[in-house]
Design goal:
EC number: 2.7.7.24
Number of helices: 11
Order of helices and strands: EEEHEHEHHEEHEEEEHHEEHHHH
Pfam families: NTP_transferase (PF00483)
Largest sheet: 7 strands, mixed
Cofactor: Mg(2+)
Number of strands: 13
Strand content: 15-25%
Catalytic activity: dTTP + alpha-D-glucose 1-phosphate + H(+) = dTDP-alpha-D-glucose + diphosphate
Distance between the termini: 34 Å
Shape: globular
Protein name: Glucose-1-phosphate thymidylyltransferase
Helix content: 25-40%
Strand order of the largest sheet: 5-4-1-6-11-8-12
């Protein structure tokens, strides 16, 4: 499976902050926002990832992330000249996908749960064995703001209603999507909506029409955060701060995820942590690598 992080857009809701820097490069507590969606793809076992951003921001993303080799993954870059819809990512990324299955995650979405890795692995397996698409749902108090799942009595996904005045459920479709190798062809068949965009809901309906769409409910113990406004950005930073301080973990630590998935060795993770100097993030990486080495009978 190939991965795509859609990190384009103008971030107008965050102006004036985003006049000079991409929204996805802003900090969410102790790390850049872009780390969070990349971590989700890595947890799913995806190692070949395309970052789609704006022409003016591309250089900053390359400067921050490089080619991904430090985490044992491959990062490449493409530009979205104008924000013409989420489904446009599959046209821009067609060469990257190259006929494989694909996972798309929005660059301003944050996901967290203790069972997330298992859910992502199961969803990846479902795509590989059964094809179709897997969408991820999350229960919200204001479903009228989102694309909302229409479910059958047995929990089967029947349809998606976009920002309905009377929501059929409280399960919002999140910014994480897994598709089989039909996705590029379906994206090419889409027509722009009345607002001039290639809508992700229209792409999902291609799979729904064929009876090939599944919904995974992330569950009550999960967190899904959208960081598109000042308030939601602050809420996300506070959520990460509280959770990390209380549990002694670091969410979306790319070095730790790479180490635990055998993308890199613990020795390499330790080197990366040491290169970060006295930052709290770097200290956590060093500690995680040292504990891993000690647990495997080796000395840090």
């Amino acid at each position: 499976m190939k991965g795509i992080v859609l990190a384009g857009g103008t971030g107008t809701r965050l102006h004036p902050i985003t006049r000079v820097v991409s929204k996805q490069l802003l900090p969410v507590y102790d790390k850049p926002m872009i780390y969070y969606p990349i971590s989700v793809l890595m947890l799913a076992g995806v190692r070949d990832i395309l970052i789609i951003t704006t022409p003016q921001d591309r250089g900053q993303f390359v400067g921050l992330l490089g080619d991904g080799a430090q985490w044992g993954i491959s990062l490449s870059y493409a530009v979205q000249p104008s924000p013409d819809g989420l489904a446009q990512a599959f046209l821009i990324g067609a060469e990257h996908i190259a006929g494989d299955s694909a996972a798309l995650v929005l660059g301003d979405n944050i996901f967290f749960s203790h069972g997330l890795g298992g859910q992502l692995a199961a969803a990846t397996t479902a795509i590989e064995t059964d094809g179709g698409c897997t969408l991820f749902g999350y229960r919200v108090s204001d479903p009228e703001r989102y694309g909302v799942a229409v479910l059958g009595h047995d929990g089967t996904l029947l349809d998606i209603e976009e920002k309905p005045a009377q929501p059929p459920s409280n399960i919002a479709i999140t910014g994480l999507y897994f598709y089989d190798d039909q996705v590029t062809g379906f994206a090419e068949s889409l027509q722009p909506s009345p607002r001039g965009e290639l809508e992700i809901t229209d792409l999902n309906r291609c799979y729904l029409k064929n009876g090939q769409a599944r919904l995974v409910d992330l569950g009550r113990g999960a967190a899904w955060l959208d960081t598109g406004t000042q308030d939601s950005l602050l809420d996300a930073g506070q959520f990460v701060q509280v959770l990390q301080r209380r549990q002694g973990i670091t969410i979306a630590c790319l070095e730790e995820i790479a180490m635990l998935h055998d993308f890199i060795t613990p020795e390499r993770a330790l080197e990366l942590g040491e290169a970060m100097g006295k930052s709290g993030y770097g200290e956590y990486v060093r500690q995680a690598a040292a504990e891993y080495l000690a647990g495997n009978g080796r000395s840090a």
